[in-house]
Amino acid sequence: MLINRKPDTFAKLAILGGMAGDDILSARDAVPSPNPMLAGPATPRRGPARNPVPGVYRAAMPNGKFINLMRVMFTDFCKMDCFYCPNSHWVPRKRFAFTVDELANAFMELRRRHAVDGLFLSSGIAGTASKTTQKLLNVVEVIRKKHGFTGYIHMKVMPGTDRELVEAAHGLGTRLSVNLETPTDEMMRRISTMKDLERDILDPMRWVHQMNRESSGGKVGQATQLVVGAANESDRDIFQRIDQLYGELDLKRVYYSAFRPVRYTPLEEHPGVPIAREHRLYQMDWLKRIYSFSNQEISQAFDADGYLDLHRDPKTAIAVENADAFPVDVNTATREQLLRVPGVGPTSTDRILKTRGEHSIDTWRDLQAMGVVRKRAWPFLAFPGQRPPTARQIRLDLFGERQPSEPALQATAAGHGATPCGVGSTCAGCSLYGAPGHPGSPEMSALAAAA
């Protein structure tokens, strides 16, 4: 019997579509990983009900709408030595690649079937960065010029690409991104010996910004991504870099991806990062971009070591630090004051301002109908007839015990067997009670009973 071992286009979509997951475009579900190269009990994936076709992802857009994207890598072969990456040369496994026409035709077929509205195209670096970027350009050019597609295309520019190819990408793409990965050059040296942050990454980003300023045909959105925790950077380090990028390069988005150890890579023993940290960074980013919080305000959300509180969102942390400014009267507060109330967003703020121009607001039912989250906003809003919430302690550290450190929480995320809080004598008051490896967790209790 003849067995064809060469993967067809559909099989490549299943493989290379599943690997193009560096940018977080939709909610992630933790399911058991089918890839033995990835350490840990679970790998972030999109559920089959949400994304029934390999390589197709329902992406959440900033305006609250959704778009189906074909998100795929041109090849998962990569010559780079990034210490965290499953596609780096450290990992011994079979690699795959599309041809230019094969990938362009696959996208157009999905487009004809109304399965996708746009394309997210990435790749490993095969050969040189410029050679790989040229391959991606060839795919996009076929889609644009041969097939006449004028919709959304997000194209990765490989770090170290020549300027003329970046210019070509600027003329074809809707959005471009060069992955930053880590905040500083010193931190880049901790995770790769082959990349120069200034020359290979920041220079191409500056070129795109310059082209946007000089372009008469409209701007091309620019984004980037950081791998959180691989270089032991703090959240404050990340914020300082993104504050610079938003201010100087007019970036549309920064994406954050929590580090997870990968087998065979130099960082396979490095503790993983809890998904809560990634979530807090997105919240901090939102405060900067959408709510227009000042740097001084955001700095109040960091602890002494430069990390965001994993137990409390940054907006609430900032509000608690400025308790003397609350509660604010919902009927007289300015837009800026309302935006600083936990549980009140830009949309609900606009609704409050519009409604109180017609009549006063005096019930929680009205506020909840406008989108206000009562549970979070109650201590910070006032209006006629409101009863204050019952006082309660948010968190109590018993007997002077310290909260678990960031490395301890990282150890929990990685599924390490050691006690994540470092305290084995008592479980009283521990915020990690019940976590894997904690002496109070079900599996540890079962082991103790068996002993």
What CATH first level of the domain at 9-223 would be assigned?
A: Alpha Beta
The number of E-state strands comes to: 11
For the record, the CATH architecture of the domain at 9-223 stands as Alpha-Beta Barrel
**Percentage of β-strand residues:** 5-15%
Q: Which structural category do the helix and sheet elements fall into? A: alpha/beta
Helix content: 25-40%
- Given the C-alpha coordinates, what overall shape results? globular
> Please, what is the average pLDDT?
82
The number of helices is: 16
Radius of gyration: 24 Å
For the termini, the CA-CA separation is 55 Å
Largest sheet: 7 strands, mixed
Q: In terms of per-residue confidence, which ranges show pLDDT below 50 for 5 or more consecutive residues? A: 22-49, 404-426, 431-438, 443-451
By CATH, the topology of the domain at 9-223 is TIM Barrel
Major β-sheet strand ordering: 3-4-5-6-7-8-9
N-to-C SSE string, H for helix and E for strand: HEEEEHEHEHEHHEHEHHHEHHHHEHH
Q: How would you describe this structure in keywords?
A:
16 helices, 36% helix, 7-stranded mixed β-sheet, single chain, disordered C terminus, two-stranded antiparallel ribbon, TIM Barrel, alpha/beta, 451 residues
What does this structure look like?
This protein is of the alpha/beta class and 451 residues long. It is 36% helix and 11% strand. It is built from 16 helices and eleven strands. Strands 3-4-5-6-7-8-9 form a seven-stranded mixed β-sheet. A two-stranded antiparallel sheet has the order 1-2. A two-stranded parallel ribbon has the order 10-11. Helix 2 (100-112) packs across helix 3 (129-146), helix 3 (129-146) runs parallel beside helix 4 and helix 4 (163-172) crosses helix 6. The protein is globular.
